[in-house]
């Protein structure tokens, strides 16, 4: 009878060449399942990382805006100094808002696609693993049919050997001719049954080999190659998300550089003398500076007029108090 050959075709691969999982990892389905599961889990890890970055950016933005609100008051005087300081505050506010925009972009353009990617690739992985399990189960049924037929054939073959030994024993003994003929008929019948069972087991073996060929060279490679394609797409789309993260920061950096360049130009153009001249024009009374004192003009005067600083403005409350004190002094006199 033909014997079952459980050897497998070997696939030679070379380092540096593209290798299909369907041919290289036919005996590593558990490893493939573990690898693809870890790959999808790492996408979740990347998404968590980016969401935490967005959270920090949003907190940073809020804190900068709070500082600008609390300490960024700008005097109303129109001077270059005040204008420069105002631009500093508004520039920080603009960059703070830009950081909040980065957070929004990271959540919508990076985190959400990664979340969708996890959902999609998880479903694809489960579909292919279920398909492998189903194909394996079908192959297992053919194995069971063959093993059952093989077990029955072994029993029949053993009966034939027993009958053959019985015939030989009778022929060597002084048994009657009738008894010997009966033993030979029994052997012939059992040999015929054995031949029929051999045809049955050969048919079962043929079906098993056909099922094995279909499983190892068609169904299993198709599923493994589909898992490979899904895993490659998972990795590529995750790196694309990383690239989008970079793009979010690059867009923000362009705006920030523009803001900082404008601020730097403003600081470089600052003219302190222009501001001091403006202050002089603002507060001048245009009165002439007093000249020398002449004795003939001051000898009859009681006192010499001296320049004095202008007294500070008196509040209404203080004016009423002073008026009350003057009235009391007049009454006492």
Number of strands: 0
| Average of pLDDT | 85
- N- to C-terminal separation? 150 Å
State the secondary-structure class: mainly alpha
Net shape = rod-shaped
Largest sheet: none
Cα radius of gyration in angstroms: 51 Å
- Helix content class: over 70%
Note poorly predicted spans: 1-14
Range of strand content: under 5%
Number of helices: 7
| Elements, N to C (H/E) | HHHHHHH
Task: Offer a concise description of the structure.
By secondary structure, the protein is mostly helical.
Protein architecture, described:
This protein has seven helices and no strands. It is rod-shaped and about 185 Å long. It has 333 residues and is an all-alpha fold. Helix 2 packs antiparallel against helix 3 (80-172) and helix 3 (80-172) runs antiparallel to helix 4 (177-268). The chain has helices at residues 21-24, 29-71, 80-172, 177-268, 272-283, 295-298, 316-332.
List keywords for this structure.
disordered N terminus, 333 residues, mainly alpha, single chain, 80% helix
How is this fold's topology laid out?
Elements: H1 21-24, H2 29-71, H3 80-172, H4 177-268, H5 272-283, H6 295-298, H7 316-332
């Amino acid at each position: 009878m033909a014997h079952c050959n459980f050897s497998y075709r070997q696939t030679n691969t070379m380092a540096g060449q593209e290798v299909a999982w369907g041919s290289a990892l036919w005996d590593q389905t558990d490893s493939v399942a573990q690898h693809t599961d870890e790959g999808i889990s790492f996408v979740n890890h990347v998404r968590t990382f980016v969401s935490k970055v967005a959270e920090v950016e949003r907190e940073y933005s809020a804190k900068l805006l709070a500082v600008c609100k609390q300490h960024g008051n700008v005097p109303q005087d129109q001077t270059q100094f005040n204008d420069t300081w105002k631009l500093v505050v508004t520039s920080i506010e603009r960059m703070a808002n830009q950081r909040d925009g980065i957070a929004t972009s990271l959540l919508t353009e990076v985190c959400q696609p990664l979340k969708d990617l996890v959902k999609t690739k998880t479903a694809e992985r489960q579909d292919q693993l279920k398909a492998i399990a189903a194909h394996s189960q079908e192959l297992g049924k053919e194995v069971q049919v063959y093993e059952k037929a093989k077990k029955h054939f072994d029993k029949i073959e053993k009966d034939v050997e027993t009958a053959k030994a019985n015939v030989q024993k009778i022929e060597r003994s002084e048994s009657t001719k009738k008894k010997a003929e009966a033993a030979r008929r029994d052997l012939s019948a059992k040999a015929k049954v054995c031949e029929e069972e051999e045809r049955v087991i050969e048919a079962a073996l043929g079906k098993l080999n056909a099922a094995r060929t279909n499983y190892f060279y068609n169904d299993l490679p198709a599923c493994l190659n589909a898992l490979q394609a899904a895993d490659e797409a998972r990795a590529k789309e995750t790196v694309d998300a990383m690239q989008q993260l970079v793009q979010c920061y690059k867009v923000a950096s362009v705006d920030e550089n523009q803001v900082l360049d404008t601020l730097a130009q403003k600081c470089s153009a600052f003219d302190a003398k222009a501001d001091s001249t403006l202050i002089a024009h603002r507060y001048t009374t245009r009165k002439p500076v007093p000249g020398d004192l002449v004795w003939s003009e001051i000898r009859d005067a009681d006192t010499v007029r001296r320049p004095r600083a202008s007294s500070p403005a008196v509040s209404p409350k203080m004016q009423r108090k002073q008026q009350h004190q003057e009235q009391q002094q007049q009454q006492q006199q």
